[in-house]
Amino acid sequence: MNTKTASEQVIQDLIDCLLAEDFFGDLNLMNVNDWNVQQSPSSKQTLKPYFQDAQSSMSKIWQWHYDLPEQRSIVTLLQPSITQAWERVPHNPVLLCQYDQCVELTPSDFLRYALEGVKDRYRGNEKGLALFQEVLDISVHQTQLSQDHRIESRHLLEKDNAAFFLAMEQWASLRDRPYHPLAKAKHGLSDQEYRAYQAEFNQPVTLNWVAIRKDWLQTGDGIVQLDRQQPSQYLLPDKQAETLLRELTELGLQESHVAIPVHPWQFDHVLEKQLDKQFAAGHCQRLTFTCGNFFASSSLRSMTPCFDSNEHLKLPMAIYSLGASRYLPAVKMINGGYSEKLLQQSKTLDPVLEEKLFLCEEDKWWAFMPPEATLFDEAPRHLSAMIRTYPNSLLKNPDTRIMPMAALGTPLHDSKDHFFDEWLSYRNLSQTKESVLMLFKELASCFFEVNLRMFRIGMLGEAHGQNAVFVWNKGQAHGMLLRDHDSLRIYVPWLEANGMTDPNYCIKPGHANTLYHDRPEDLLFWLQTLAIQVNMRSIIDTLSLIYNIENKQLWQVMGAEIKQLIKYIKFSDEVRSMLIHELFECDNWPQKHLLSPMIDRAGGPGSMPFGKGTVVNPFKQLS
């Protein structure tokens, strides 16, 4: 287990994320030579091994005096960045200095001292600070575990569609959400469970099943009119489905109950705690039937079935991840249904979207809903299931492959393999900078054309690398597939101008929502943050690392493609000017804050916590 590699990844993301969120306030920055002049002779000797190679005129020493009475400070080297004003110089030590003594810090130590320096800011929220520290320690440890992965990274195009897709899901899981220092932390999993359930270990998962009263279930529109009312009819081969039906029959439940799958971790750790009264009363009943050979995807709780099928499974799994518990409430699936209908309508409004935008069907679902429950109660959301149907045209076409974009933005710690290797080979292109830039240009053009055309009619999908799936066909960037439709963001005036109507999303009264937006600029926030600052940035950084290309060149290619699309797509003059101004002319961009909101939340219920701030405009930084 390589502790050093995992610690470097986490501390880089941690410091950069905190810097971007202005966690430390004004930065005390000095040129390396000027800083050395101020040090005592003994300090110079102590620090010489750490910073003697810091020759870049752009690099600055950052010293944060977090404990002035004791003269303690954190010291490291920063450099200007494209996506934020300053970032840590990779692989550079992070030091705790006191008088003439310095020691190198681990991520855990760094965070402990950093939180000590801001404790007055969070007075009364010691729980939030403690949770942050705990989850960071888990993130480092589980990142180490993931380095023992079993990802197949070569001969990918020799695999059939399903095997290729699973391999790329496992690859995407290896980093989870790029630039989030807590992304790998799955709080609640033991080491054994982590290795059993994380996608990158390629381990089959045996699901449990629970029978629920039919009249205590809420279901999606996609199964109401169908003969197939049981999840087993979608997820199991005939013989296994018959075995499950036999148990229901023997228990006298075949007419009154529906059997839904449950993740084994949820089955063992959550059901009794959340729903013990319903099980004791017989409204829900554990079954002895189990089924194996489901495999986790990059989202952990979304599973591929145990036979060749385009119907996958999403389940609640109440681990604590990315600052939230991963349950699956009916209200999310209801809203997802509304969004799916809007997305289907959008394809009829734009011939390019009709050709290049692909959608999973997510309207087949079952959610436990007792008569006295509401859509916003916690307990029922821990017992539900959704069938996600992928288009047959993608999974059954031998010329097509699909992959979560996060796989393209995830370097392997133990090799320099990348899907672009196979793409270059398929196109008979040499592995040169020019060839890589050409393929990246094609990828960026495809991705942003779909997103900007959706934006033109008043919507944007969840375009981070896990939910945005790249469609590759015969060596060409063919389109984008979207999933997790419950996070479709909209601007109603533009929807209505294009003949669509407000879907009237179900939103908890008094609860902040991220679906509706008051201005087009607010909707654009999601393109700037999730699509560019996370998804495309991670692909740029990965290609830069693997193929030894300046990331500045990749940013320039992407910027040129976006400008060309804005010019080409039929925006109004007013909207075109707004896009150019917001994306290329403003000094600052919006930034999605992740860590401070997590401290503020202190582990409470709800979706992934976030706040909004500003960072530098990456396209202005290029100049």
TrEMBL record:
EC class name: ligase
Record-linked Pfam families: FhuF, IucA_IucC
Pathway terms, separated by semicolons: Siderophore biosynthesis
Keywords: Ligase
Keyword Iron: no
The protein's Enzyme Commission number: 6.3.2.39
GO biological process: siderophore biosynthetic process
InterPro entries (alphabetical): Aerobactin_biosyn_IucA/IucC_N (IPR007310), IucA/IucC-like_C (IPR022770), LucA/IucC-like (IPR037455)
Keyword Heme among UniProt keywords: no
Residue ranges of every copy of the Aerobactin siderophore biosynthesis IucA/IucC-like C-terminal domain listed in the record: 455-597
Record GO terms (molecular function): acid-amino acid ligase activity
Aerobactin siderophore biosynthesis IucA/IucC N-terminal domain span: 165-408
Gene3D superfamilies per the UniProt record, alphabetical: 1.10.510.40
Spans traversing the lipid bilayer: none
PANTHER family cross-referenced by the UniProt entry: L-2,3-DIAMINOPROPANOATE--CITRATE LIGASE (PTHR34384), STAPHYLOFERRIN B SYNTHASE (PTHR34384:SF6)
Descriptive protein name: Aerobactin synthase
UniProt organism field: Marinomonas spartinae
